[in-house]
Amino acid sequence: MSVRMSEVAVGDQLPALSVPLTRADLVRYAGASGDFNPIHWKERFATEVGLPDVIAHGMLTMAVAGRLVSEWTGDPGAILHYSVRFTRPVVVPDDGTGALVELTGKVAKKNDDGTVKINITARSADQGVLGGASATVRLPE
After folding, report:
1. Strand 127-128 relative to strand 99-110: parallel, antiparallel, unpaired?
2. What is the chain's pLDDT, residue by residue, as a tens digit (141 residues)?
């Protein structure tokens, strides 16, 4: 999908996105990122350190939330600034289904410099997992 600045208004909702994460996804991400912390793949270790189960990498959660914006703009290069606060982990059970990260976004502001601020909401298991998530994008006229 590609969107133009002239088509955007404050309050517009981005198309929702749901991203499933399984243990296999976590293993692939660990290999790609080099982050082999056992809280992301070893249930016994995760529970021994006080987690409810294996959790997704924070940066993986951030990346899937960023997909909401890049899919809406149609151009990942349109994202000029992107930030989040990690508020809760995404728990990924070993049940054949895993976890679902549900993403929504809203146009919060059209800036004078021709950019748009998007506020992002990320939820998993009916709880917010990112706080203060937002992106600033430059759209074609």
Report:
1. unpaired
2. 689 999 999 999 999 999 999 999 999 999 999 999 999 999 999 999 999 999 999 999 999 999 999 999 999 999 999 999 999 999 999 998 999 999 999 999 999 999 999 999 999 999 999 999 999 999 998
